[in-house]
Design goal:
Helix content: 25-40%
Radius of gyration: 22 Å
Oligomer: single chain
Order of helices and strands: EHEEHEEEHEHEEHEHEHHEEHHH
Shape: flat
Strand content: 15-25%
Length: 411
């Protein structure tokens, strides 16, 4: 890698139309997993002006039978979950209101041909829900072992949302975007050269004194979130650069599940296999194997075995074991990458990285997903039962497996 360069990552808020769709899809996943931990869910959501539409395939005890008949009360629970999600986000606008949006449910039974490839039977272990490649990544740029650009982009928007929900910033509305450009020197973040924040606002905050107040407030939020050493005279701020942002969310732009996969992962600092996460139960390796790959990469960096680590896993539909495992520490490793691959392959607690093994290791057959669907699936604190793939409980196992006493890398 070059040691000196500019790099940029973006984030979007919980009120962005695509993120509204992601959160509704994951609210449905959580609802179904709460009824049947083995439920199969592939729920897509589309949002637009005062409209929410669901589509996709499902299967589960107490949810829907194989003929497509809903269990009593479930359809009402689905609509309620969608409305409660939009209410939590904060949409009570003329063009998109949690009470009044039109709701359409087009979920139907899972394909029997998919089911026969995925389900365990006889001597056959449960197979992957689809083919595909999944990546995990970690680096020592932040205490969360995430790329700095994305980490700060997320946290700016989280701070805005916290202030909006608490009433500290009543002039804010739910839709927002951020973007952080950092200059790296010797591979480390040195200065922020450009920060972009566009936030939806109440009427009147697009000119004059109120606009100045909004700009000053956003700069204060940035200063709260980002290290002071990164901000300075060379930092250029672009706050609501179009001038006005009153119409936002699904009323301003249609939203779809799965369109923010780079925001969801590593902000472009690492590869992405292409599969989205939200709306999918954990038999779908697009989701579960990507979580496992992050778990492995984070523990490798957390163990001091590398300062930067990318992991790839690959699967075939209906086949349980991964087709390949690839580790790349980008020249920062304290042991050979092949040695790390061998160590991962020998750790029995990983369950062979099969879909069932991953779900057992990380406890994924639970309703823990709606919280993941905004502000990134990675770099979050593993509070309670949430974000188990962010735990650093594999560090000692990895050290023992490679025969090293390496110390944790300092961020």
């Amino acid at each position: 890698m070059r040691s000196s360069y500019l790099f940029t990552s973006e984030s979007v808020s919980e009120g962005h139309p695509d993120k509204v769709a992601d959160q509704i899809s994951d609210a449905i996943v959580d609802l179904f997993l709460s009824k049947d931990p083995e439920a199969r869910v592939a729920c897509e959501t589309m949002t637009t002006t005062n409209t929410v539409v669901l589509a996709g395939e499902i299967r589960g005890e107490g949810i829907m039978d194989k003929d497509g008949n809903w269990a009593p009360g479930v359809q009402e629970e689905i609509e309620s979950a969608a409305r409660e999600t939009v209410k939590r986000i904060g949409y009570e606008q003329e063009g998109f209101h949690w009470k009044t949006f039109r709701f359409e449910n087009n979920l139907h039974p899972q394909s029997a041909h998919i089911a026969q490839g995925v389900d365990a039977s006889g001597d056959k272990d449960e197979g992957a829900g689809d083919q595909g490649i999944m990546f995990g990544f970690a680096c020592d740029e932040t205490p969360d072992l995430m790329p700095a650009n994305l980490d700060y982009s997320h946290k700016i928007l989280m701070e805005l949302a916290n202030d909006r929900h608490s009433g500290k910033a009543p002039f804010l509305e739910p839709d927002a975007k951020s973007q952080v450009t950092l200059r790296f020197e010797n591979g480390k973040p040195a200065k922020a050269t450009a920060i972009v924040v566009s936030t939806q606002h109440k009427p009147g905050y697009d000119k004059g004194t109120r606009q100045a107040e909004l700009h000053a407030y956003v700069k204060d939020v940035i200063a709260r979130v980002m290290p002071a050493r990164l901000l300075g005279n060379e930092t250029v701020y672009h706050i609501n650069p179009t001038g006005s942002f009153e119409i936002g969310g699904p009323d301003g732009d249609a939203g779809l599940t799965g369109r923010k996969i780079i925001v969801d992962t590593y902000g472009g600092a690492a590869p992405h296999g292409g599969g989205a996460f939200s709306g999918k139960d954990p038999t779908k390796v697009d989701r579960s194997a990507a979580y496992a790959a992050r778990y492995l990469a984070k523990n490798i960096v957390g163990a001091g075995l590398a300062r930067r680590c990318t992991i790839q896993l690959a699967y075939a539909i209906g086949v349980s074991k991964p087709l390949s495992l690839y580790v790349d520490t980008h020249g920062t490793g304290t042991v050979d990458d092949s040695k790390l691959e061998d160590a991962i392959g020998r750790l029995e607690k990983l369950g062979g990285l099969t879909p069932r093994g991953i779900r057992t290791l990380l406890g994924l057959n639970r309703p823990i997903y709606e919280i993941t669907a905004a502000y990134g699936h990675f770099g979050r604190h593993p509070e309670g039962d949430f974000f188990p793939w962010e735990r650093l409980d594999l560090v000692e196992d990895l050290k023992a497996a490679v025969g090293t006493e390496a110390l944790p890398v300092e961020a």
